[in-house]
Write a structure and sequence with these properties.
globular; 17 helices; about 25% strand; alpha/beta; Rossmann fold; 10-stranded antiparallel beta sheet; 3 domains; 23 strands; 7-stranded parallel beta sheet
Amino acid sequence: MSRSRTDLYFLVNRFSADSGGRTRSAFVRAAALAGVYRSSTLLTLNFRTDYHDVVEAWRLRLGLPANVTVRNIHEWMADEPVFAPAAPVRFRPPEGARKVRREDAVHWEVRDEGVLTDRYLVEGGVLQRSLHWEGGVRVRAVTYDDRGAARLVTHYRPGAAEPHLRTFTTAAGRTYLEHDPAADAWRVLEGPRATDGFVPVAEVGRRWVAALQAASQDCVLLVEDRRMDPLVLDNPHLSPQTRSVATIHSVHLAPPYDDPDVVGGLNARALERADEFSRVVILTREQRRDVERHFGPRPNLVTIGSPVAAPSRRGVPLRTRLGELARRPAHVVVVTRLSPHKRVDHTVRAFALVVARVPWARLHLWGDGESRPELERLVQELGLTRTVTFHGHTTDPLGAYRRARVAVSTSQSEGHSLTMLESLAQATPYVTYGYRYGPRDTIRDGWDGYVVPVDDVEALADAVVRVLTHPWRARLMGLVATRVRWTSSPRRWKRRWVQVVDGTAPGRR
């Protein structure tokens, strides 16, 4: 089959404006392969009123070509636009409503003889959600679009904590779908996709994927999210000639992710059925060894790491590059989501040991997340408020690395850390725990960074101090680190992916 007739469908499940590496990986791969095949389409299931804005934000952020598109199952079920863009309309509070500030947000409340009946949640002057009570009991929650039109209504039975029904409305105001949360089932109310009663969400998804396949001359299904596996592996509606690729983006082990014989989670379930996919892509050689050790040889396993793009330095004299590195201050940088899994508290505790030996050192934390308040308290407790800076989210991680002498990671596990590759590509040595997976495949210990035992905060601090207190060593390590610009170049990575897609054999799912 000619590549020009092949459509690629990336099953990504759901995403948001701040989704992490897996979503970015799918978008980047879709964009890279769009120039080789007829089209690249990301398939999503989630409903959100700002969906169009989120898609456009990703499109602008990554410069996606025109033949990279995003399709959502809700628009297929409704058979009309559901996420059309709209100009924001300022909220006009109902008569008798009183403004109330709660947790830095503006609410408007309506009370009947002192009893709360309605609460409207407003952000930036635009209505987002409303909650409604009858006789003091919550009965309904409504989500609105920017125009102030109700798009999702969640219904509660009196006294129940969980909802019993959700109804969805198109941009034109037509109610097209009901959702039974207890059964996780949908009922499409009318149109060509109307169902006879409630049907499991996964089954509606299977019908959608099969319909896309039937409309294509030739297609390959690339499963990015393990929750989408049943739409391919357990889909009786697909052709026997289905071609599929599953990408394992993260660890397949059970917490604490340090024993290759203790597997768990959705990745492990997918690997048990790996033979049912045409190809299964794993990001590192170490993970592939662990997989085959536990599950046995898998001839359809392929190892393709993450790519990293960096401006070319070809033609820049070595003296100039060394001079640039010499001017870097003794700054330590972390670029990551501030979540418990990333264990940035280990970095902060290690930095307390570092600054005791290198008083001029500074730690810069880029990123946001639920752990930030806890980390800010820890910084205060350790007396580091003058040496640790929280910057929040950054759209320029490469710039953050270029301004630092060393980068640090203390995560519990990764698939193949893009931040590690970005740091090395910017000539910034990387000090990291030896978690599964990625560091031992990428870092040449002592040459472009250091890999220290997991949970050994003192060893982490010692490695950081070695980089900070030996400027020439840091410069030479930085130069060696830039080898990833070749070993993980987008061109090599794209070539490998084209080989995988072209080599998928029909008849396996």
